[in-house]
Specification:
Layout lengths: L3 E5 L6 E5 L4 E3 L6 E3 L4 E6 L2 H10 L4 H16 L5 H11 L8 E3 H10 L4 H13 L3 E2 L5 E4 L2
Antiparallel strand pairs: 1-2, 1-5, 3-4, 6-8, 7-8
Helix pairs in contact: 1-2
The structure holds zinc ion.
Zinc ion (ZN) binds next to loops.
């Protein structure tokens, strides 16, 4: 269940958002004390950010509203970059700038850990690259990528 709802003041039509658990809200515009239970619910939101955008969308003329709501939905459905993308971009952008594509293994892990990738995942991916001949260990503790 989405935790936020977007509703309208019954008296003047100003849109607001609140948590589902909230009972009342005083309208800034007309001073009406809105009973949220009986207010007109416009839609629901997953986050405060989305709720704020939706409130703004309900303030613009109806003719433009659908377009804005569509944009909000699209920006929500964009998934954050996955591990593989982060990993591959890191090798392409960072490692390839180093001499002979060599990077200390500890540093490699450290930076990717900071990007939210776990040791297990990194190790598995390095093993895969090694098996394909795309990564070698020229000396202990150093990784060299063949690009
Ligand atoms: Zn009002």
């Amino acid at each position: 269940m989405k935790p936020f709802l977007i509703f309208m003041c019954q008296k003047c039509g100003t849109p607001y958002y609140c948590k589902r658990t909230q009972k009342t809200k005083t309208c800034f515009k007309c001073g009406h004390r809105i009973q949220i239970r009986s207010a007109r619910i416009l839609t629901y939101a997953d986050s405060v950010v989305e709720a704020r955008y939706l409130v703004e969308a309900y303030k613009v003329p109806e003719s433009r509203r659908d377009e804005i709501i569509q944009l909000i939905a699209e920006s929500k459905s964009k998934k954050p970059a996955n591990n593989k993308t982060i990993f591959e971009n890191f090798i392409r952008e960072q490692v390839s700038r180093r001499e002979k594509n060599i990077i200390p293994e500890t540093l490699f892990y450290q930076i990717l850990n900071e990007k939210g990738i776990t040791d297990d995942w990194i190790k598995q991916e390095l093993d895969r690259l090694a098996r394909m001949g795309l990564m070698i260990r020229p000396e202990k503790g150093k990784l060299q990528f063949i690009t």
